[in-house]
Design a protein that fits this description.
This is Vacuolar protein sorting-associated protein 26C. Keywords: Endosome. It comes from Eleginops maclovinus (Patagonian blennie). With 297 residues, this protein is mostly beta strands. Strands 2, 5, 6, 9, 10 and 11 form a six-stranded mixed sheet that branches. The longest helix is centred in the first third of the chain and has 4 residues. The chain is elongated.
């Protein structure tokens, strides 16, 4: 006998803040009356930390010391054992999004080594012959907007062979001069990162200029920290040998879920950086790095 179980939230965008109520319905659709042994609904918020393969041997104790960090957990019985009539049945539910003690609800974040996720799970127990049904649904938590005003300070940069730090063969590098600015490195998540870059001159033709957004995740325990940087997105802002002296706009929208306000706790850190990457035709790669501080207002 076919039966479908689903969780429908009242908010279409599934975004909630601490202190609000997560409300919705459990939807059951079956052709004929259905016997069950109880329906329960649970809400859980977890931070999952993982080590990159290069750090595994270094921090053996890490696996024992850092279990998933539970931010919120609650469980309710939606219906006692009984029968559900044939057709479509909707059971409303409400969960207050509040933590116990002094725990903080961090913003939903899908990273590589740090994952912050909030889930609703509905379980329907059935008799031995019929399989138990379960359904999960993720909802998104946004952190409370910060009260302090964000001070946007522009950052100017100049890139020449002399300003490069990790260059082993500076004498063989072609001559070039690139100027530019970012309108701010203290960024509001809901607003784009903007600025401009100008190629003043270059001995070698330019292949492309790209803007790379990077997440820097630090996981740790008493015996040390593992810090890993991975790319979130890469957008090309110029293709080919661009006109010299022409301002090229920088415009990057921050992606949802893969980014969150800059976060620092005792067990983990989530930070963000942006790289302005210039590739020359002789395959030289020139990168200028800017740490970003993200917040929600």
């Amino acid at each position: 006998m076919s039966v479908t179980l689903d969780i429908r939230l009242k908010r279409a965008n599934k975004v909630y803040h601490e202190g609000e109520v997560v409300a919705g319905v459990i939807l059951l659709v079956c052709k004929e009356a259905l016997q069950h042994h109880g329906i329960s609904l649970s809400m859980e918020g977890l931070v999952n930390l993982q080590l990159s393969s290069k750090s595994v041997g270094v921090f053996e104790a890490f696996y024992n010391s850092v279990k998933p960090i539970q931010l919120i957990s609650s469980n309710i019985e939606v219906a006692k054992a009984g029968k559900i009539p044939g057709g479509r049945t909707e059971i409303p539910f409400e969960f207050p999004l509040t933590t116990k003690g002094n725990k903080v609800l961090y913003e939903t974040y899908h990273g590589v080594f740090v994952n912050i996720q909030y889930m609703l799970r509905c379980d329907m127990k059935r008799s031995l012959l019929a399989k138990d049904l379960s359904r999960s649904c993720e909802f998104i938590v946004h952190s409370q907007p910060q009260k302090a005003k964000v001070v946007r300070t522009p950052v100017s940069f100049t890139i020449t062979p002399d300003t490069l730090q990790n260059s082993k063969e500076r004498s063989t590098l072609p001559k070039f001069l690139v100027r530019g600015n970012l309108d701010a490195t203290n960024c509001v998540i809901s607003q784009p990162l903007t600025g401009e870059v100008v190629v003043e001159n270059s001995d070698v033709p330019i292949k492309s200029i790209e803007l790379q957004l990077v997440r820097v995740e630090t996981c740790g325990c008493a015996e040390g920290y593992a810090r890993d940087a991975t790319e979130i997105q890469n957008i090309q802002i110029a293709e080919g040998d661009v006109c010299h002296g022409l301002p090229i706009p920088i415009y990057m929208v921050f992606p949802r879920l893969f980014i969150c306000p800059t976060l620092e706790t005792t067990n983990f850190k989530v930070e963000f950086e942006v790289n302005v990457v210039m590739m020359l035709h002789d395959d030289h790669l020139i990168t200028e790095n800017f740490p970003l501080k993200l917040c929600r207002v």
